[in-house]
Design goal:
Elements lengths: L1 H25 L6 H22 L5 H23 L17 H10 L2 H18 L6 H22 L28 H20 L6 H23 L11 H4 L10 H15 L16 E5 L7 H12 L5 E10 L4 E6 L4 E5 L9 E7 L3 H9 L6
Antiparallel strand pairs: 1-5, 2-3, 2-5, 3-4
Helix pairs in contact: 1-3, 1-8, 2-3, 3-5, 3-6, 3-8, 5-6, 6-8, 7-8
């Protein structure tokens, strides 16, 4: 039992602890990132040295060392990406009307430098392990690469559970490239491929002629593949998998469900900012029991992008939104807008006093993160 139980337990603990630590550090203030990145880079350098030192070691201890080094090297890739250090040339939300292959291209632009860094790391690890008997660290890195890439493609093509609340606040523009759908065609293919790999690795681990090194190594790789399969099913099942990372994400800003007091405060803010204008405020009574969302749009909005966004809201692209009302400034002048299930209306607005851009939405099951990203994408160019 120890032959397989200890490697499985080691994999589960190391994978969970490393994920929680990365989530926690990503959720801290940006001023801490320089220290986190320095520490992660030091660990990455140590992992590459450890990979070289264990490349000729085919003992059980050599398997544990190589596996830990491969996972640590991957941790550096994830840390640098979600802290915004190595991402891509695009760091803004996707425009509401960007779809299909164009959206895929823009999504790639958000992470292309990250993907190139992964390839460079993989090449370095191949060089370190070239023709050596212990290549477990390299294969650990490759399995984790597959897990991450497959998950990213699935949330791009669309799944019910995006877990967007795990994305750090400074990287929330990534959520605008995610899709919420009951299923996508890539999901069964990715799960099937992962399952075949998991079965093959398990077979090698329990093979009668497997050495202790092979049994340990294959058991850890098989466990990683099973974790990949479980994570993929979390994307399409109603189970709240985010509870697994509760400790890690507690540092991130929390979005609490607004209370009636919050609604009253928002209404008071509107009264103070909008004076006697005919800007329609959210209704009281039954509407007050709905979810509410408010945000400050960009200081100058592009009126064409705003119009397309309002049409997308009315079409249900951001959930069951009953009404959206707001005031924004375009290059020409201030405008007020109102959207409900029947129409989207934009009209000139002449504030009687200094006001700030404001948008408020009422509804149920609103996709708040994507809605926020969409309004941020309304900013007028240059």
């Amino acid at each position: 039992m120890a032959t397989y139980g200890l490697p499985i337990l080691f994999t589960l603990v190391l994978w969970w602890v490393s994920t929680v630590v990365i989530l926690y550090l990503d959720g801290l203030h940006k001023r801490t990132f320089v220290w986190s990145l320095a520490g992660a880079s030091l660990l990455m350098a140590v992992s590459l040295w450890g990979l070289h030192a264990s490349a000729t070691d085919t003992s059980v201890n050599g398997a544990y060392c190589a596996f830990a080094c491969g996972l640590t090297a991957w941790g550096w890739q994830i840390t640098t990406f979600y802290m915004g250090a190595i991402t891509g040339p695009r760091r803004t939300p996707c425009e509401p009307d960007c779809k299909g292959f164009a959206k895929f291209v823009e999504a790639v632009r958000t992470c292309i430098h990250h993907e190139l860094a992964i390839i460079a790391m993989a090449v370095a690890m191949v060089a370190i392990c070239w023709k050596q008997p212990n290549q477990l660290g390299l294969w650990t890195f490759i399995v984790l690469w597959w897990m991450h890439t497959s998950a990213k493609l699935n949330v791009f093509f669309g799944v019910p559970n995006l877990s967007e609340e795990l994305v750090p606040h400074h990287m929330r523009y990534l959520v605008s490239f995610m899709g919420r759908r009951p299923m996508n065609m890539f999901f069964p293919l990715s799960v099937t491929a992962s399952t075949i790999c998991a079965v093959n690795l398990t077979t090698k681990a329990i093979a009668p002629g497997a050495t202790p090194f092979e049994a340990t190594g294959y058991a850890m790789l098989a466990t990683l593949m099973v974790l990949a399969i479980v994570e993929h099913w979390f994307l399409v099942t109603p189970f709240d998998a985010n509870a697994l990372w509760q400790w890690g994400v507690k540092s991130a800003p929390e979005t609490a469900k607004p209370t009636r007091q919050t609604l009253d405060m928002q209404h008071a803010r509107e009264d103070a900012e909008l004076g006697d204008s005919d800007y329609l405020r959210p209704a009281s009574g039954e509407a007050a029991l709905m979810d509410t969302w408010s945000a400050a749009p960009p200081s100058i909005c592009d009126d064409a992008i705003l119009t397309r966004l309002l049409d997308a809201i009315r079409a249900g692209a951001f959930g069951d939104i009953r009404s959206v009302k707001g005031v924004v400034k375009t290059r020409a002048d201030w405008v007020q807008f109102e959207v409900d299930r029947h129409r989207a209306k934009i009209a000139p607005f002449a504030p009687k006093q200094k006001v700030d851009p404001l948008v408020i939405a009422l509804g149920r099951r609103m996709d708040r993160v994507r809605l926020q990203a969409a309004f941020e994408a309304c900013a007028a160019a240059g």
